[in-house]
Each structure stands twice: as structure tokens, then as C-alpha cells.
Amino acid sequence: MQIASGIAIYFIIWWIMFFLVLITGNRDPDPEAERVMGADQGAPSRPRIWRKVAMTTVLAAVAFAALLAVLNSGLTLYDIPLPAAPGT
């Protein structure tokens, strides 16, 4: 795999992981607390976006390493045992 395509694939994996991690750990704002005018009622009180970016980077690196391991292992789709079609 060339460097440019590796960076592009990592970028795609990172964004998919980011959208998965983005919804984790959110808490609704406290109804007793003072609300900020113009803020959405469903917006999390503390989104902790930098923590989610760091978690996304680690998860994307693990997923990318697993993808590279599979690509460099020499396995092909013909190595996977699949059920035969009926009548063959």
C-alpha cells in the first residue's frame, strides 16, 4: 500500500470511528441548572471532545493496524471456506 492511499484509508477509518465514539459518555444537562439561552435542550452538558478525539485516534490506529495485518498476510477471499451453491 502506498503512503497516500494509507493516509486516505486511515482518514476514512478515523471519521467512522469518530462518529461511533461521539455518542458515548454523553450526559443530559441537569434540569435544575441554569440553562444557556439559545442552547439546544438535548446538548450534552460536558461533551469532552478532546477525550473523544484521543479515543478515536487510538481506536482508528488499532483498526488500521488490523487492516494492514490482513492485507499483508496474503489471505484472499478464496481462502475463506464458504458454503457451496445448491446443485454444484
Question: Can you characterise this structure?
Answer:
The chain has about 90 residues and is mainly alpha-helical. The protein has a domain at about 1-25 and about 45-75. Helices cover about 50% and strands about 0% of the residues. It contains two helices and no strands. Helix 1 packs across helix 2 (about 50-70). The chain is elongated, with a radius of gyration of 21 Å. The chain starts with a helix and ends in a 16-residue tail after the last helix. The model has no long low-confidence stretch (mean pLDDT about 85).
Task: Please outline what is shown here.
The protein is mostly helical and 88 residues long.
> What do the pLDDT scores average to?
86
Structural class: mainly alpha
Query: Based on DSSP secondary structure assignment, what is the total number of beta strands?
Result: 0
Q: Helical segment tally? A: 2
User: Proportion of β residues?
Assistant: under 5%
How would the global form be characterised? elongated
Largest sheet: none
This entry's quaternary arrangement is single chain
Query: How big is the Rg?
Result: 21 Å
- What is the H/E string? HH
Question: Helix coverage percent of residues?
Answer: 40-55%
Give the termini separation: 37 Å
Enumerate the spans where pLDDT stays under 50 for 5 or more consecutive residues.
Answer: none
